[in-house]
Specification:
By secondary structure, the protein is mostly helical. Helices cover 63% and strands 5% of the residues. The protein has a five-stranded parallel beta sheet with strand order 2-3-4-1-5, sandwiched between helices. A hairpin with a 2-residue loop joins β7 and β8. α23 packs parallel to α25 and α37 runs antiparallel to α38. The longest helix has 21 residues. It is flat, with a radius of gyration of 38 Å. The two termini are 54 Å apart.
Amino acid sequence: MPTIGAAPVFVARDTELAELVRAASRPPSVAVVEGEPGVGRSRLLAELAAHHGIASRVVWSARCGSFARPCRLAPLVDALLPKSDVAAAHAAGFSPVTGVLRRLIPEWSPWLPPFPENVDAETVRRQEFRAVREVLTGCGPAVLVLDDVHAADDDTWEFLRGLAVSPAPPLSVVVSAAACGPRRFPPLGETTAHVSLAAFTAVQVRTLLNASFGRCAPDFAVAAHRRTSGIAVDLTALVQSVGDTAETLTADRLASATVPPLVRSRISGLMSAIGPAAQDVVRAAAVLGSPAGEPDLGAVAAPSPGEISGAITEAVEAGLLRDLGRGRYVSGSPLIDEAVYALLPGPRRCAMHGRAAARLAASAEPVASLVARHARLAGDITAWTQWTGVAVDNALEDGRTEEASRLLEAALRDTELPRAARESFAVRLGRELPRGIAHAGTVRLLREILREWPLSKAARGEIRVHLGQVLINQVGKVEAGRLEIELGAADLGRRQALLARGLVTLALPQFGTVPVEENFRWLDEAERVSKGEHDAGLLAAIAANRLSARMQIADPEAWDEVADLPRAPESAEVCRQVARTYINLADAVAWNGHYPVARAYLTTARRLIRDDHQPYLDALADGTELRLDLAMGEWASVAEKARAMLTRVDKDGSLAAEPLLVLGWYEYGQHRPTAALRSFDAAFALSAGSVPVQASAYAGRVAVHQAGKDLQAARRLAEFGLETVRRKNNWVWAAELMPFAVRTMLGLGQHVEARELLAEYRQGIDGKDAPVANASALLCRGMLTQSRGETLAAGDLLLGAARAYSALPLPYFAAYADELAAGCFSEAGEQARAVASFTTAETTYAKLGAAVDALRCRRSLRRCDPEMPRRGRKGYGEALSPRELEVARLAARNLTNREIGERLFLSPRTVEIHVGRALRKLGLPSRTVLTEDLLSDLPKGTVR
């Protein structure tokens, strides 16, 4: 319930506040609010004191432990003083006993009775209790609100217990206290209402931030909750330190934010209020940084014997430790952990880390990475290096390649890593990098090592080869990768097997701009170098790339060799190579149009690596599967899957190209040209190492510009894409590009050039087993035939293309061909055939969710078949009313309902109704596909 935005907000505590208001409104009553320090007890009491539900009552409020006037019953004196005028107004009705308040509150002396004479100190003390009670109850209906009563002095505590045991009819008492500790006020049987205030949940944190800033990024809310554990006071300070507008509240800025001074001060105060042993336990928890039991905390804190249990209890009661149950404890929140750690002096911190490393190393099953971390922070370089090596070994043994790479990279970036370990760690990082998902920072590190570190020739050569593999396979820098492999070859000497592994990386035709013949020459060289080698993994890799290369150029004889792949490889390395082969084959046959076969290959690959964590292979398989989902019409979840994959791979690496490509084609099918072009451009930028992805990205960019009637831009892009494929000399990868290129050329009147291009394409795919390329050629023939005015013959060719696409299946292109065929049949007077093709196209588009395309086909159907049933409401029927059109046009410009309402003087709800009616009449699923172009192209009769 903090104040963190432009104005104070109070959220997520409405139920608790209502309960307190009910209790305070029904005297005599006692209500208790309990919660850990910082969860918002004080703010809840402040909201109660200002609540309109008790506005007619006198509210006496104060906080225990911090007094304006230190004296006996100090919290109660602090509560009475601000209401002196109220007390003075009712003084005539006070009894003589109230005269004892003259010493506690001298300001009231002018209107209080005389101080009692000849009474002992104990009598005065008891009369003070009676006098305070009389004032509290003698000024009309009242509420006593006391915060932090666990910190009250003994006299105040006794007074409050008396009120609980013997309530005063006109008085309600509301107090707050820490959730645990030796003092619990009062016994639950004497409580009218008991409110247990927990820390905010992640949902409540997001609600609070949205209320404060209008809108907050979900990932920021989640991160803020995770770091503060929902403790309100810390959340307030942390968010304020990050920014004061929704735009500045990002997860990245939160991650880099240091502990706010207010939090550090609060934690320092809490630490000073507990004993030395409890302080050391809290520090031990911060040093360990993860849940720990009493023995571990004791070993790191090193308190005096017998103190550990009491120290833990005291730390938990102070809110500095959390009890997770089953004897496990952790810092109250990650932010508390950070604050305690920051307050820990350097020498003591190192000593604690040293004890932590020794304790963890001596356990039955030590976690090597944790031991290494504590050894490093303790300054024990030898132990850190040793345990890092053990941690890497364990990670690799368990198949956790990415963790091994992370550990090695962190060690290599440490300037104190011993020189003796540098070379071995660098070589190991190079070996593991091709198996995981390489990040740009890791690649830069290896390049820096090669450039600046003294290495043996063997180590330098091995690192270069592995770096070259990564640059080619994952970064998309084929020429740079080739250069690294060639430089590595000069250093490797007689290590032919490793050299062959580097050369075979250059063998796949999809990589680089050189003709496929050059890729096969690299493959031949790899086989020559590996002669006489008995490394089963190497031989499997060469065989895998030979088969994959042949399938990428759609060699019909490659199928025979697939059957020879081992079904149950004996070694883990051969198993990985066979799995990689099936993934490469799935990718190749997917580009060729054998979609069900590609799915089967992916299933086989996943079976082979299901027990072997291979992030890079998994990502390759996921990218191919995304393309298959898109191609085969499984559009319902493809965009969500693509975005999920983008969170798992390096957003700047080539593995991000395929999900971006899939997003581009999906957005194109949804008629979102701006988003589609952005995705296609991003995919193209990352696809330098993959010609088929480049060609598909070119096709998408041409399609978007063509749809936008910018034929000159489409023509330029088409030529760039065609030249890429022409230079590679593998025309099967132009299957998506060709129809859009030909249609663009025909639109510009370049009929001769279009015919020559088609002839070149057909020659390039002749003898290839690529059904999607053949369907594409048939579609292009139909368009060329139509351009010559032979509409009936063109219709038959286009219908044949539609059936060829359907057989793959590639439904979106099939519907596109059906729609073109229908147009030809209609122009030729074959209305029945036109209706049939338009109906097929409309049905396919609708199943895919391509609403705008389906609507276009329905309109064409009505022109062909006037008797076709029409949708729409009575009155305007199928047509949009003028108001509906006006609202739809504003919605197409991305205005919100509120903005439209302000322009047209309508309520947001009325705008919502008009938009809904317009979408229903147009047959659109949502306003996201509503565009100004669509509305400007409405046929006659659509608007009245």
